[in-house]
Design a protein that fits this description.
Elements: E1 3-9, H1 21-24, H2 29-43, E2 45-51, H3 55-68, E3 71-75, H4 84-93, E4 97-101, E5 123-126, H5 131-145
Parallel strand pairs: 1-2, 1-3, 3-4, 4-5
Helix pairs in contact: 2-5, 3-4
The chain binds ligand CA2.
Ligand CA2 binds near residues 24 and 112.
């Protein structure tokens, strides 16, 4: 049976493509979802792609992922830099989580250079725009193939 990768997107990522394309690119979140499902098909992975502006909903999705998903890719948006709740949920889930950011957070404001997610993530991909999701799926396939 195909393994499942949960791809979670945090606050404001539903606005992609509408503003700040010089930072986040021209792709919409729907474009990125298609990129992920198409590449998931090539890799033989089932992709479950979601977005929420609500921290608690993201926490619940990670909690529940322990039952259904084999790995997760997380762009927690601004919660990356603030959310101990997401960090705790990742640690409790035992799920391999790959952190993704469209922008290179290390070239940006100091507050974006800190990530709670990184403390529990298997690895971090940032600065490659939408292509970073493809890189993260490839990494997930590698991790799951080794299991
Ligand atoms: O680079 C990333 O992927 C971020 O996770 C994006 C977050 C930001 O808070 C993180 O520091 C880095 C913000 C996403 C907001 O995206 C928008 C795009 C267009 C219009 C409005 C928001």
């Amino acid at each position: 049976m195909a393994k499942t990768v949960l791809i979670l997107n945090g606050p404001n990522l539903n606005m992609l493509g509408s503003r700040e394309p010089e930072i986040y690119g021209h792709e919409t979140l729907a474009d990125i979802e298609k990129l992920c499902t198409d590449f998931g098909d090539e890799l033989g992975l089932k992709v479950d792609f979601r977005q929420s502006n609500n921290e608690g909903e993201l926490v619940e999705w990670i909690q529940n992922a322990g039952g259904g998903a084999d790995a997760a890719i997380l762009n927690a948006g601004a919660y990356t830099h603030t959310s101990i709740a997401l960090l705790d949920a990742i640690q409790a889930s035992g799920l391999p989580v790959i952190e993704v950011h469209l922008s290179n957070i290390f070239q940006r404001e100091p507050f974006r250079q800190e990530s709670y997610i990184s403390k529990a993530a298997v690895g971090v991909i940032c600065g490659f725009g939408a292509y970073g999701y493809r890189l993260a799926l490839d990494a997930a396939a590698g991790i799951l193939g080794d299991k």
